[in-house]
Amino acid sequence: MCKLFTAAEASKYVGKTVGDGKNAAMGSGCQWAAKDYDGDMMVQVVPASYHEQPTLAKGFQAMPNLGTKGFVVPEMGGWKAAVLRGEESIIVTVAGPAASQQTAVALLKETLSRRK
């Protein structure tokens, strides 16, 4: 996962300078943390059976145009977007000055295109 994005690319999604990607989410993803530890971006891939749609969360929005069970939702001061693709659930999160629903969706779309 950490080879999907450079620190410079991740910085644009977060809205501030981040470091190199580091192993995260118990080995299922990669996280690029802000240098001041106030913001980050993460890309995670887990088995499809782990895919959960937090439909009761405030701000949850189904995004069927992203793919099967695609969604975006505010999460812990940032945003999360995810979709099922075959046997995988692709999940991205972003927090920081540039984090928004649109940023999370753009990050998910870019992640999907790079994982072909």
Architecture overview:
It is globular and about 35 Å long. The protein is built from 2 helices and 7 strands, in the order αβββββββα. With 116 residues, it is of the alpha+beta class.
Can I get a quick summary?
This protein has helices at 7-14, 101-114, and strands at residues 22-24, 29-33, 40-47, 61-62, 68-75, 78-85, 88-95. The chain is of the alpha+beta class and 116 residues long. The chain has a 7-stranded antiparallel sheet, with helices on one face.
Features:
116 residues, alpha+beta, Protein Transport Mog1p, Chain A, seven-stranded antiparallel β-sheet, 2 helices, 7 strands
Enter the CATH topology name.
Protein Transport Mog1p, Chain A
Domain unit count: 1
Largest sheet: 7 strands, antiparallel
Gross CATH architecture: 3-Layer(aba) Sandwich
Write the SSE topology.
Blueprint: H1 7-14, E1 22-24, E2 29-33, E3 40-47, E4 61-62, E5 68-75, E6 78-85, E7 88-95, H2 101-114
